[in-house]
Design brief:
heterodimer; A: alpha/beta; 21% strand; globular; B: alpha/beta; four-stranded antiparallel β-sheet; 14 strands
Amino acid sequence: MTAGPAPEHAPAATNGDAPLIEVQHLKIYFPIKQGIVVEREVARVHAVNDVTLCIAEGETLGLVGESGCGKTTISRAIMRLIDATDGTISFRGQDVTKAGRRHMEPLRREMQMVFQDPFASLNPRKRVGQIIGMPLRLHGTERGQVEGRVGELLKRVGLSPEHINRYPHEFSGGQRQRIGVARALALEPRLVVLDEPVSALDVSVQAQIINLLDDLQDEFRLTYLFVAHDLSVVRHVSDRIAVMYLGKLMEVSPAEELYTKPIHPYTSALLAAIPIPDPRENRQRERVVVSGEPPNPINPPSGCVFHPRCPRATEVCKTVEPPLVRYPGGHLAACHHPMSVSEQEIRSAERDEASPLACGDEMPSPDGAAAGAAPENRPQA
Amino acid sequence: MSDAQLLLEVDDLRVSFATEEGVVKAVDGVTFDLRQGEILAVVGESGCGKSVTAMTLMGLTRSPNAEFEGTATYKGTELIGAPENELRRVRGAEIAMIFQDSMTSLNPVHRIGDQIVEQIQEHEALPDQQARERTIELLDRVGIPRARERVDSYPFEFSGGMRQRVMIALALSCSPSVLIADEPTTALDVTIQAQILERIRDLRDETGAAVILVTHDLGVVADVADRIAVMYSGRIVEQGDLDQIFYDPQHPYTWGLLGSITRVDRPRPERLPAIAGQPPSLAHRPTGCHFRPRCPHEFAECAEVPPLEERSGNGHLDRCWLPVEDKRAKREVAPGEIGLDAKDVPEPAGGVA
């Protein structure tokens, strides 16, 4: 589907050269301050808590998780819209974590973003031509050439060049999102961060935008970071998918494998929560419905952050944070009691260097974890 | 189902708004009925009129520019154009509503318990203590842990999922016979969405209330609905029971909706099936069948509005002129796969907001 590398590839090393984006042990904490005259920091929201991942050139990484899991924070940090508390972010091998404004400016050309809400992300007082032409003008395209280029871009995203003098309110949600895409493409970026680009759109229009993004990726060899809150949409665009929960990576997997072989119970719960449009099959489907809600990121649970909601949780999950373990096929999961893997696969699994620094050394044990192991401790409903 | 008591009868309901762009017919002749204990899902995209229909039943469409036609009868009482004091008696006690956005629907400066107590005492002369006890019981029933402590919390102290449960408790407080839920799970995370839908279904089983579930997501209703009405551009285009809609859909728009749902249980297709074009603007609708400009199967007949009729038997209604056998052949895009072929639709020249 995409021009990216074959799904079997090991995520860290694609065709030898450095990945386009490399995030290492990234931590982003937001301080909560109180006080009238002197503000004191009373607590911290652990939005992103030691995440390591990379995106290869031409690849699409889907970043999935529920609200508050830190997915948007990571994407904004990669765009350098938020400063990292700790850890590093490199763009094409170059550390940009602390890069200043002047240093970032040429790089901004290469990384662009499409936002979730097509109603809020376009200035209602500007004409389409001004909206799409602005990045061109800022980066030094000559005045005379801007209009022609905007026309081309409009055509490319499926709008008519005659729309150049219209205002955003004259367009429907799907068309507005096309304008947002055209603006992101104006500078021919390498990386496009898509922050829930279709979740505000109607179902029938979502598919149009996804297909458009797919075509554009092939045509311009774009690298995508696609942020989404559920697993249904990302499947169509992603080469790999990373699942986050409460600021941590739970699982990173080649896209298709995640759907047939989810290793982390949280991924399995996310999959189960997506209804199948087939009532008969739905009735028969075995579903892991997790109880409870995500805990407060100010005070995340000890051990595995998912343990209070996990149907498979045991004593070890409460105290020891699981390392990210690499299973065959480049499939990573952070779980003491992995699902859908054989004993053999567990034995050959290795601890991955992307593991959080604070995690324990315990590797998942084959005996307790074989597929179908009975949940030992079911949390209260 | 048919022997259950008929609660609500909506007949040719029309709601139009006078705007600068002309008269907008938000609801353009909607007819359905609702029986005790059933869950009717009203499915459609934004602007199809599903929410206006729901709000009108509650007497909440109160724009001075709005005009109503048709009837909606609840147990013999006419709701459309009923005087405010009569509506107040029905609203909350007989027909209750769960809104999409629980943050703006609850009053932020009152404790949630007080808001529920207020509604109970509005309809029943119950002493404070008893009303409070019932409130705690309700919160417990919708799955709020430590209800006795949480009853005195403010809305902002709850998460989105918990606030939606409070909304459900509020709606259930006077044991209504009809519950209208307008996109109750759209603002929620997927794992929470599953919990809330399950809760709504359980409550229907316990209380025997009928539910109208308004949603844009056909996938969501596969789990909970008994009957489904698919709306497009102000009209119901297809109506039938769950299996009819999912396994024998008659209207091309329904095929398109079914086809564009991502299936996580199947191998991924090369391309995501999409419905071409955009939903029509309410002020400038196409003549004849409203779906015609986006439909790859349109033909001469479509210039005339097809009535909502039983064409395939068993109470299954639809608005499409195609002969039933043709439909069954045309909707199969792959063996066993229902979908709608793409159509080359030029982008409208503008004025589509």
